[in-house]
Amino acid sequence: MTSINFEQQAVFDGYAQTYDQWFMANAGVFKSELALLHTVIGQGTHDKILSIGCGSGLFEQALKQVGVDVADGVEPSKDMAAIAEKRGMSVQVSTAEAAQLPDAAYDVIYFNGSASYMQDLDIAVANCLPALKPDGRLIIIDIPKESAYGLLYLLASQTGAYDDETLAGVAPQSPYPVTLTKPAIWRTTAEKTATLERFGLTKLRYMQTLRQNPVYSNDAVEVPVAGYQAGSYVAIIAEKATTK
């Protein structure tokens, strides 16, 4: 079995500006995803929140504007972490699997679009879960492998470009860069649910957005709804039981 060095995974080094620019070009998608993140985090003004795979802190900066302060982050890319710190976050440069986190320190820990870039999601969850307070929430938000966007990204990774005739007419105007879809490990909602359940997190809720076809999902901002069967961006909200 090939060993994985969890200390050195930094897929987004060199792509920090590309990441932010993509969301600027897809403002409707960004606002839909932000609305989902805001909804599942809630408005607990005294909650201590940790973002795993915080990237450039783009979402956290937007959350602060609506009264949700996410002060802490973990991010393997030095480039991304530097931007997040300029945006006011305290960021540990590390992967989720190797991060050094304090015990029972956070009310909410979330993975927003980052789980697909984790080599071993089980190890990532196992490492982060002790940092969550009893009755705290662990939230995984990501693109399901079986969703419209998931299938589009799988095809784009295989063909190598969105302008391949196989994808004619099905890609959005400004698609997510293929260079960032190729290293992703797309997982189904069922697979992510199974990971959480393996750690005894059985009290789960689901919310979704980006229910429109990818060609049209940037046209309007969506209100998140319960469920996972139709969305291309799905949140799984798990509550950590109080230890007796």
Can you describe this structure in just a few lines?
The chain has 8 helices and 8 strands; from the N terminus they run ααβαβαββαβαααβββ. By secondary structure, the chain is α/β, with parallel strands linked by helices.
Shape: globular
Structural class: alpha/beta
Q: Cα-atom Rg, whole angstroms? A: 17 Å
Main sheet: strand order: 3-2-1-4-5-8-6-7
Order of helices and strands: HHEHEHEEHEHHHEEE
Number of strands: 8
Strand content: 15-25%
Q: What is the makeup of the main sheet? A: 8 strands, mixed
Residues in helices, as a percent range: 25-40%
Q: Outline the low-pLDDT stretches.
A: 1-8
**Separation of termini?**
38 Å
Overall pLDDT: 91
Number of helices: 8
Task: Describe the structure in your own words.
The chain is α/β, with parallel strands linked by helices. It has helices spanning 16-25, 27-41, 58-64, 78-86, 121-128, 148-159, 178-181, 189-198; strands spanning 49-52, 72-74, 90-92, 106-112, 132-142, 204-209, 225-226, 233-239. It has an eight-stranded mixed β-sheet with strand order 3-2-1-4-5-8-6-7, with helices on both faces. The chain is globular and about 55 Å long. The relative contact order is 0.17.
Which characteristics define this entry?
disordered N terminus
Which SSEs are present, and which pair or pack?
Blueprint (H helix, E strand, L loop, with lengths): L15 H10 L1 H15 L7 E4 L5 H7 L7 E3 L3 H9 L3 E3 L13 E7 L8 H8 L3 E11 L5 H12 L18 H4 L7 H10 L5 E6 L15 E2 L6 E7 L5
Parallel strand pairs: 1-2, 1-4, 2-3, 4-5
Antiparallel strand pairs: 5-8, 6-7, 6-8
